[in-house]
Amino acid sequence: MNQDRAPILRLEDISKSFSGVTVLDGINLNLYGHEVLALMGENGAGKSTLMNILSGNLMRDSGKIVVNGNDVDISSPRQASELGIAIIHQELNVVPTMTVAQNLALGNEPKGRSGLVDKKQMREDALRKLSVIGTDINPDVPLGELGTGEQQMVEIAKAVASRAKILILDEPTASLSRGESERLFDIVEKLRGEGTGLIYISHRMEEVWRLADRVTVLRDGHTVATSAIADVDQSEIVAKMVGRKVEKLYDHDERSAGEVVLDVRDLRLSQDSPSVSLQVRAGEVVGVSGLVGAGRTEIARCVIGADKRFSGEVSLKGRNVAFQSPKMAIQHGVAYLPEDRKVQSIFPVRSVEDNISVSTLERFESFGMLRKHKIREAVGKLMQKVNIASRLQQTPIVNLSGGNQQKAIFARWMMRNPDVLILDEPTRGVDVGAKREIYELIGEQAAQGKAILMISSDLPEVLGISDRVLVIRQGSVVANLESKKTTEEEIMGYATGVLQPQRLGPEHDEIHDNDEVTFNE
Description:
Layout lengths: L8 E10 L2 E11 L3 E6 L6 H8 L7 E6 L2 E3 L4 H6 L2 E4 L11 H6 L13 H14 L15 H14 L4 E5 L7 H16 L3 E5 L3 H7 L2 E6 L2 E7 L5 H9 L17 E9 L7 E6 L3 E5 L6 H8 L7 E6 L2 E5 L2 H6 L2 E4 L3 H4 L7 H6 L7 E2 L2 E2 L1 H14 L16 H15 L3 E5 L7 H16 L3 E5 L3 H7 L2 E6 L2 E7 L5 H9 L20 E3 L2
Helix pairs in contact: 5-6, 13-14, 14-15
């Protein structure tokens, strides 16, 4: 890459404030054609604000934006598109009730002679766009019926089809399977070869080192470093991101598992689905791995009563249970941290304090009144425990970084003190510093005797903090592996079907009550 030529995008001293709080302070950045520039930083560093300025969703307060040598003001997403800038957001920007084809054509629908939308042409265009990225998604299905990974692939197809010369990818693999991620990597390399300049935002070091030519690091709204990937190592980048040295990411202490706490036997989600059996013991972290769409989340939702089960048994501490709702599961010691925290976990406009205490308010009631000072005191202690600044206690949680939001949800369940924690992608979209803190919280909960079931698509994470790994393929457990004795390659072998399923022996040798207890509202 010859950087003697002019960049296709240049940012000079970009600044932005909200309500007197500076979130970007003199950002400088150059992007060249035929280049992948990684943009890294902790959550809250200013990456999303900067990308929203480039995509026309926010206006900068000061500074200069230069595109292909011309000073520009980007006042709307349409103007950004006209300048050849496209962005793939981490939070999907789709219309779930519309079909895949309609989403791909949104804002640029083909018209027939009558002036009406040419649906046949729209479908043909959709098939062509999808084929470019190597996916066979049906263009006629409502987008909301697809999994998160497939929805992300549709977003990628739309951005690639725009033929933008500046493409911004914000955590693009967060919801993708390994196979989908590999297809994305091929697309990135193809676009770079064709002259596109790509800004690649990711917390995943292995992706950055595989794809990027250079890396720019933001911290607290400032540009703190820009380096060629070949001239820097990962530990240096992490230190620049967090302003301190981060110790080993996975620090897995030896744990001794106790009695079986959660026991799932021959669980079937539907008449045609395979049966699932698993156990989690006190003080144990069991990782659940598998491709996107393998059924991991569906199993968890069935266990907690969010979805009905067709057959099978779930027992908690030796007692058969049938939760009719997540609320009932929570009341009886089973907590669930969903995959999509923004939709399913947080109450966006409520304060951090409200979000942490929401599941435990009955403990603070006295004669029908809430003892608010007790809530404030208890929440304050938990915020200190999970390393969220005390000044944020009354702040709407939506204003916090993704890492702090996730830690607040952990604090909610720590306040509830459950016997079982089911975590679905607990560090998705979380920066490396917050990841380390979340891993410590998981380890501490296990050390206190909690039974933890952790679903994750991040294989190093699964191996790094789990005691055992269950591999799910097409809705059934195909392998039960000891973390210290397995590898990423073996896990993927079982997940993809390259390796034959293990012959799993009887797991349920504990004595259980025969009477099932059904918990209703």
